[in-house]
Write a structure and sequence with these properties.
- By secondary structure, this protein is mainly α.
- The protein has one domain.
- Helix 10 packs across helix 12.
- The longest helix is centred in the N-terminal third of the chain and has 29 residues.
- It is globular, with a radius of gyration of 19 Å.
């Protein structure tokens, strides 16, 4: 987003229409989004207020008068719907575990509930950083979001590994689990093998895998950056990510998580619906997990279209 926020910027009133928080938003994207929600019998405005407007530290997108197009604002709009989906999954998984819902093992429900709770906090923090021009900490959080997205898929497709995760009782045990099964691309290799069985090749020598490694290397460099070179900087040749790109990568990874979850577990939408019905009045976000999954998949092309997409090598991003 913009490198600075106008002094004294405030968020619109709680009951204001969502579009007032995204000045310059593409009217076509807004109309298509509301159509997708309406087709599923969902009230976009009400759920947006409950799931996004109520976020800690919420602020509207600053007005970008000199922006060449709506891409930057559209990106935040799409990211916010990913936040809403993650928040709904956190609640749905917790409800599924509490009810002993069918379709997933208790350890899977428990692990996913904890994982999506962490993703919810990380994405909330990333939103604040992206809207206040703090690229390095945004990059650090984007890296964690990517790892957690991989871990969510691993827990979904490997029930026994979910049991090992649930059995962790200390920080040392959790760290050892992460080192052995998630870090260093281990989770991605597990997912790639499973995706290959449904016809998607993400082996190490594919363009996607190479792009992903380049992005994650840059994100990792942000974690260990020299304090003398930290802070907001202009994009330099050879850099893969700065500010808007962290938001784009996080949105892309959550879209990918949503799509792959349904490929690898085609019954997942029905499982989520069964875990959250009948709808409870105490947590209306839980019931969004199933229908919002289809909406996010439908929006993948909306993310690809407006984003200025180049990588360090000068090639177009392969999504």
């Amino acid at each position: 987003m913009a490198d600075s926020l106008p002094p004294g910027a405030i968020a619109p009133l709680f009951q204001s229409p969502p579009e007032l928080s995204y000045p310059g938003l593409s009217p076509q994207l807004l109309a298509r989004t509301k159509q997708l929600w309406s087709a599923r019998g969902l009230d976009f405005d009400r759920h947006w207020r409950e799931g996004i407007r109520a976020l800690p530290g919420f602020r509207a997108v600053p007005r970008l008068d000199d922006a060449p197009n709506s891409a930057a604002v559209d990106l935040v709009f799409l990211f916010d719907q990913c936040v809403l989906w993650v928040r709904s999954l956190h609640r749905a998984a917790a409800l599924g575990h509490a009810r002993g819902a069918e379709g997933l093992a208790p350890a899977q429900w428990l692990g996913l509930a904890g994982l999506f709770a962490r993703l919810e906090e990380q994405m909330t923090a990333l939103r604040i950083l992206a809207l206040t021009g703090l690229p390095l900490p945004a990059m650090q959080i984007a890296r964690s979001i990517s790892e957690d997205a991989d871990m969510a898929l691993v827990l979904l497709i490997r029930p026994k590994l979910a049991e090992r995760f649930a059995d962790c009782r200390s920080v040392d045990e959790a760290s050892e689990f992460w080192r052995r099964h998630i870090s260093g691309g281990r989770a991605f290799r597990t997912i790639s093998e499973k995706l290959y069985s449904v016809g998607i090749d993400h082996s190490a020598d594919t363009d996607y895998a190479k792009w992903r490694r380049a992005v994650l290397t840059t994100l990792g460099a942000a974690v260990h950056s020299n304090v003398l070179t930290s802070g907001a900087q202009a994009r330099r040749p050879g850099q893969v990510l700065l500010n808007d790109d962290s938001l784009h990568f996080a949105t892309f990874r959550v879209h990918e998580l949503c799509a792959y979850a349904q490929l690898l577990a085609p019954e997942l939408t029905d499982i989520l619906r069964g875990a959250t019905e009948p709808a409870t009045g105490t947590d209306p976000l839980a019931g969004l997990a199933a229908p919002l999954s289809g909406i996010l998949v439908s929006q993948i092309q909306s993310l690809n279209t407006p984003a200025p997409a180049t990588v360090a090598t000068g090639r177009t991003r392969r999504h």
